[in-house]
Amino acid sequence: METRHITIQSALEKLSSFLESFLPILNTHMVHFYTEEIWGKLKSELQTELMAMNDTEITELPNDYLNISVSKPSHISPSLLQLMEDIFKHNLESLNVLDDLPSVWKQLDIKPLSSPIHFDKFMTVKKCHEVGALCDTVASFANYTASKLIVDLGCGKGALASMLSLNHGLYVSGIDAAGFNAHVEAGRQSMLQKTFKSHVKKARLTDEEEVDLSVRFRRSTLYLSNNFDIRPLIEECSEHFQQSFRHVGLIGLHTCGNLASTSVQLFVNSPESRFLCNVGCCYHLLDEIFDKNSNGQEPGFPLSSYLKSKSFALGRNARMVSSQPLERYAT
Predict the structure, then answer these.
(1) What are the Methyltransferase domain coordinates in residue numbering (predicted)?
(2) Do residues 278 and 302 touch, judged by C-beta distance below 8 A?
(3) Fewer CB within a 10 Å sphere, N or C end of the chain?
(4) Is residue 165 within 8 Å of 217, Cβ to Cβ?
(5) Is residue 311 part of a domain?
(6) Are 58 and 110 found together in one domain?
(7) What is the rounded distance in angstroms from the CA atom of residue 222 to the CA atom of residue 246?
(8) How far apart are CA 176 and CA 18, in angstroms?
(9) Is 180 helix (H, G, I), strand (E, B) or coil?
(10) Distance (Å, rounded) from C-alpha 199 to C-alpha 202?
């Protein structure tokens, strides 16, 4: 664990130092290239090489970058190629701070679970893929940690919660800051249960024994802060579901802005939380401690003590740019 901590801090040091010289450009609006002469802040050799490229070569840069580890494009000049290689050396994979799921299962000796039924008729293809993948991952961690109660942060319409409940028999407490229509919620859950029972019957998954096919999902409208106490919620769920829960798993799919960092803080501060499985989004809505343009009362970045010691700030535009997948531009 100590070695892992050193690796992560070393990666933060390298990445933050590398980014600092580029942040003034990353946090620039397009119009500022004219009004503040941002173009002139680029190294002269980069300016020359970029101006010498045609439209097709410029358009192909994202694709060239994605393939730079296997081939070095001959049409890219030395300074630009060096910059692209330096950027590649500072991505998360190159910094050796990521583990893929198969390696995690192997390290923890976990046999991953899979869902027998997917609700493709109730979700878009993209949403169905996301919910299905996270559902199986959460269920595997829940089984490994013996956590029967799952707390879904920013649960939305409860698609992930319903999948976890129906496919894996887990109890789910959904938390969302926005209110919900109880009548619409009841209708949606009833429809899901009917569909699930139909799928189970067709697949003959219950020939040998009767299985409880009810949705074990309870929703609460709450505002989550950094000092949220999860214990009263566990007690309420124990009473509601008539079950005894001692610990929970924390999850979130598309936890927006500060909610992603709040979930990390909640996990660290709650001994009752056995695992955290979270997919954040909308990082442009994240409030920063050291960004002069952020004014949130509970900023979510940085959480790292090292970055705090540096008073490190990314800036809104830099977060906006980082949220855009290069693969989208490369196609």
Answers:
(1) 126-287
(2) no
(3) N
(4) yes
(5) no
(6) no
(7) 21
(8) 37
(9) coil
(10) 5
Q: How many residues are present in the chain?
A: 331
Confidence of residue 46 (pLDDT cuts 50, 70, 90): very high
Where does 154-199 show beta strands of DSSP type E?
171-176
**What pLDDT sits at residue 323?**
85
Contact 193, 221 (CB under 8 A): no
44 and 163 housed in the same domain: no
- The answer on pLDDT for 179 being more than 60 is no
pLDDT computed for residue 102 by the predictor? 96
Helix axes 125-145, 159-168, angle to 10 degrees: 50
Q: How far is C-alpha 249 from the chain's CA centre?
A: 16
d(CA 267, CA 248): 10
Total-model pTM: 0.85
The answer on 261 and 139 residing in a single domain is yes
Does 204 have pLDDT greater than 60?
Answer: no
- Domain with 190, as residue range(s), is 103-281
Residue whose entry in the numeric block shows the structure tokens 């809505």: 285
Considering the domain architecture, whether residues 109 and 180 belong to the same structural domain is answered as yes
Domain membership of residue 329 (yes or no) is: no
Tokens of 314: 């990314």
Give the pair of three-digit tokens for residue 62.
């994202």
CA distance 64 to 231: 51
Whole-number pLDDT of residue 19: 95
Q: What is the largest CA-CA distance in the chain?
A: 74
Residues 223 and 147 in one domain: yes
In the sheet that 149-153 helps form, which strands lie side by side, from edge to edge?
A: 217-221, 171-176, 149-153, 248-256, 273-281
Strand 171-176 and strand 273-281: the pairing is: unpaired
Among 72, 96, 120, residue at a domain's last position: 96
Answer whether 170's CB lies under 8 Å from 146's CB.
no
Q: Which of 10-24, 122-136, 193-207 has the lowest mean pLDDT?
A: 193-207
Residue type, 285: L
> Domain of 265: which CATH number?
3.40.50
- The proportion of the chain whose per-residue pLDDT surpasses 70, expressed as a percent, equals 85
